[in-house]
Amino acid sequence: MRYENVIFDLDGVLVSTDEYHYQAWKKIADEEGIYFDRAINNRLRGVSRMASLEIILERAEKNYTQAEKEELAQRKNRYYQELLGNLTTEDTLKGVRETLAGLRKNAVHIAVGSSSKNTMRILTQVGLENAFDAIADGTEITHSKPNPEVFLLAAQKLGAKPENCLVVEDAPAGVQAGVNAGMQVAGIGEAAKVSQAAFTLQEIRDLLNIAV
Ligand code: BG6
Ligand code: MG
Known about the structure:
The chain is an alpha/beta fold and 212 residues long.
């Protein structure tokens, strides 16, 4: 089946920033004496900064005020942005550039649909800021994944119907968001284990066998 439009998640699909999210949250959790591990981290994939914090605080022994939560979220973003400082054009995940080029060559429209408010900064740092026909990100939405809002916005910016879009996701919450948007989903990494994904990708290049 050929898809006219492919919408990519950012963190963990195009760029390995999912690891930086983990490291920044781990530092916060350690500083606050809250248990946090990679299994819990998988629940944060695709989820907004404040919603991620709420998941981490499930293990906290004290109650945090709204002001304290905001301070923690800001501190996490500072640590995260320090790590983003290391990003270069070398840091797109394996096969991403040739996959994007292959889709474009076959006239498939491509977009980004990410919950991250750091999306433009990341795309610029890795040199992909002009690689997409549309970008929808965390600065433009009210509800993060699993809510479909960001994918529906990306489809709208592409001028595409949801049923003609294929979403590529590494997050269980992102797979759910794609399904909620009425789109088909290709899961990679953690999301390849999620049954609602119509396709599973061993590597991003496999997309060229599905979408083209
Ligand atoms: C998503 C990540 O892309 O963006 C989540 O998968 C993250 O882990 C979310 O919490 C929000 O990111 P940011 O950069 O706005 O804190
Ligand atoms: Mg992701």
